[in-house]
Design a protein that fits this description.
A 9-stranded antiparallel β-sheet has the order 30-31-32-33-41-37-36-35-39. The protein has a 6-stranded mixed β-sheet with strand order 29-28-27-34-40-38. The protein folds into 3 domains: about 290 residues, Glycosyl hydrolase domain, family 43 (Tachylectin-2, Chain A); about 220 residues, Beta-galactosidase, Chain A, domain 5 (Distorted Sandwich), CATH 2.70.98; about 325 residues, Glycosyltransferase (Alpha/alpha barrel), CATH 1.50.10.10. The protein has 17 helices and 51 strands. It is about 25% helix and about 30% strand. With about 1000 residues, it is α+β, with helices and mostly antiparallel strands. The longest helix is centred in the middle third of the chain and has 23 residues. A hairpin with a 2-residue loop joins strand 31 and strand 32. One of its GO terms (molecular function) is hydrolase activity, hydrolyzing O-glycosyl compounds. Belongs to the glycosyl hydrolase 43 family. This is GH43 family beta-xylosidase. One of its GO terms (biological process) is carbohydrate metabolic process.
Length: about 1000
Amino acid sequence: MNPQENRRTYTNPVWAEDAPDPFVLSAHGKFWAYATETAKHGNGFQVLESADLVHWVHRGTCFTPPWSKSQLWAPEVIERDGLLWMTYSAQNPKTGKREIGIATSKSPTGPFEHKAILVVPDANQKLGVIDTTVFVESDGTAYLLYSEEDPRRIVLRKLAANWLSTVGPTVELLRPTEPWEKGVTEAPTLLKRDGKYHLLYSANGFETGKGDSGYCVAHAMSETLAGPYKKFGAILAQEPGRVYGPGHQSVVTIGKDDWLLYHGWSDQGAPRYGSNPTGRTLRLDRLVWQDGMPQPVVASTTPQPAPHVPAAPRDPSQPSHRAPAIPLITHDPYFSVWAFGDNLNTDWARHWTGAVNALVGLIRVDGTAYRWSGQGPQSVAPFPQTGYTISATQTRFTFEGQGVRLGVTFTSPLLPDDLDVLSRPASYITAEVVATDGKPHDVALYLDITGEWCVNDVAQPVAATRRKVGNLEVLAIGTAEQPVLGKTGDNLRIDWGYAQLSSESAETRIGTDTLVRDGFIRDGKLPSADDTRFPRPAREDWPVLAASFTGLKVSTRPVTRRWVVSYDDEFSLEHLGKRLRGWWRRNGAGINDLVQVAHKDADSLIARCTAFDKKMLAEWTAVGGAGYAQLLALAWRQAISAHKLAAGTDGQPVFFSKENFSNGCIATVDVTYPSAPLFLRYAPALLKAMIEPLVAYAETLRWKFPFAPHDLGTYPKANGQVYGGGERDERDQMPVEESGNLLLLTAALARAEGSVGFAKKHEKTLSTWAKYLLEKGLDPENQLCTDDFAGHLAHNANLSLKAILAIGAWGQLCERLGRPDESKQFLSAAREMAGKWLTLAGDGDHFRLAFDRPGTWSQKYNLVWDTLLGLNLFPPQLARTELAFYQRRQMRYGLPLDNRRTYAKLDWTVWTATLAGSRPEFEALVKPLLLWVEETPTRVPLTDWYETTDGKQVGFQARSVVGGLYLPVLKAHWKR
């Protein structure tokens, strides 16, 4: 149901500010009103946004022509071939006459780009040409209609096929002939109904005084496009004492109903141009047809039935309207907070593990409080949430009620080209409030976070403090004990360091949750003093850090306020016995420096995030479509925040992952491997910061095996492998898996960086692993692979693929490393092994799960590196054969991992889809994943292990492996 459906009426004006010559476009799921420039909004065409034609928000100006800065009048926009085309009139500064131009944009809010001048007035035209519109005939031919000013008439010309010029003769449609037109006919709107052409136009003077406000909307009709047009008089005229000069109409069709949008002067003194205090406001009334003719419209000033805007049908290839969980504040495995559902104000915000990290948001509108975030306080009603959008670095929620719209944007600036910013543990929560009813409102905003943010268990005692940092009041809360890096494990929250809340010009308070919140609810005031009863358990009188803004005067211009939530963890990781600080601290910066720079950079950083998100969306959509792009937007913050970026003991970055809900290991090789595509595409330095410590560890005396390690320990301590036999023996190791992974990642890193520097530094170790694969890789023994949850498997065909490709990749690297003999040896061996593999794995119309198991099958996702690295060890027919077979094994929510069970691995399915040779083949594998995102009943941060039958989570969540969803993007980038 439309979020405004419970508002059954509206009252004009629907936009109570100057919006002359309005044209309304329906596009991108919204309505967009374009209007003539005004003094208030500066030099440029205005654009407003609405979801329902009734509630509008000003989105600034969208275009100023490069050839004119004056008399920017009457823009109209039409959609064609994925572009928005704007026609408009403006004054030529050289001739003083008005001309008609055309511009294009991909976005309704612009910026539009100038394309051409369509009409230049001839010598007979003293003033110029204005009020242009485009009419597209049923056969696709486009025509430009416009008004010639002196002498007055409405004319038509055919547009060229590219719409950048007009062709053929100028055809007159009508001119002023009636006394009531007062010599003016302008603002044409052409409609075609039942084969007849209906021309709506405005007549009379638009700025006449009260005694003679004759500007109106009139109607004429013709049997043919070129006329003649018979006039039927005015259908919308002034309502004395209420509305004067209604005109310059636009028609929007919703279902079977037509709606007339137009400007009009209210009864506020003589409605003279430039002197009326409100200007020409935007107004809305229904246009009714009877017997094929438009009926007279009354310019209403009393409540009217509102348009019904139905929800668009769901297209599974388009962006999902629902995420399993919504990222809010995402930085690292300990500082990662999500909404585990669709509505921010019906549940508590939660750490990715599911533990409550309460974040309560309240708004007061004209003295009454509502809740926009959190499950409580229950004494106030939730502010109606109307939707949310997720982009790479930001999540925006929208709420509406009591005549105002509230937008709340969570920004975690995880920008891959700026590691200093990416490593800062500071997120922005930005609230924007605007009136939707054209009336002024008194508004106050409130936010708090609880001691849950800094404890593993709410029984742990906490203490809260405040301090002054420059002109900022910074509130902080942390455990009394401060056991820095004291625990390792999986289902844990941080219990050292300090959660912090800061905001410029806010009233701040430390206190008991109920007392602080109730004070704001009651009269907008917080308690007069901080609660100092510390230490006490986080669950005892639930201490909160609160910040509020009061006395906000909200009208149709948005009012914005912001909070910064940050975390000071002092020490972030431990690496081979040494404590490491966050990367942002490496040059001596402290937490006060972070808070200050976070506030100082807020506007520019959020603008950078917005630009980055827009750029990413365009790239991802081009690769896989809108639905795939939305999946990547959801995965971005999860993939990055499942790591911690710290400064190593040598001053170089280390970027360690945590195996979230899969055992808690740190820097696991077979978690880095699937996550790598994101970093290979956007931040190769971070991939190097993942694998460098692993290879360096394998070069210490502690690692005694001829194959690669699995991990570096249990998060947050990277003090040596703990998986399987650890450093002791080969029991439950992953020798072929991890050796193949690191060799392939090294080759991919060399491709991404255009350098073999990393391989050169570690060539002895890498060569040892490649030789191990020569011996063990073709027909692996009964050992684990990355899909260890499925158990041991001997003769694993997909694992063998990985080994063969890794051997080929090493041979390829050797050629660049100046080792020609070794290059020849390994490339030759890889080709020979590939031939044997085809025989061992072949099973008629597909290839087996294991060489000794006929009738089995599995996803051969490792095959992607054959083309990505240009190895070409296997024939293209292998991928084609497998993909054709997979199509017959699809379930509702995707392709199972193999024949043993019906569960899927999200990342591997996308890798498999990357083998596709065409877009339809790719989409056939990806669309069920998009449907799963939309319908899974398990509301947690993306799991990568789920059932394809019912969509339920099997295990794992919030893991970094969703970085693998970017493999198609990497492939497209490398192809370029």
